[in-house]
Design goal:
mainly alpha
Amino acid sequence: MHDHMMGPFWGNVVVVAIGGAITIGCIAAMFRMLFHPGENDPDHVKRRILREDR
């Protein structure tokens, strides 16, 4: 019934592989930025937001 919506098998594999690679890359970037943000500037905005007197 839905055969007209199916593409070629290898086309579907390529789309799924690219989507999976992008997803894994985004998750890896998230963990990298979460644990090693690389921001050491004492005047950075996040330091004002995360002050203990707030």
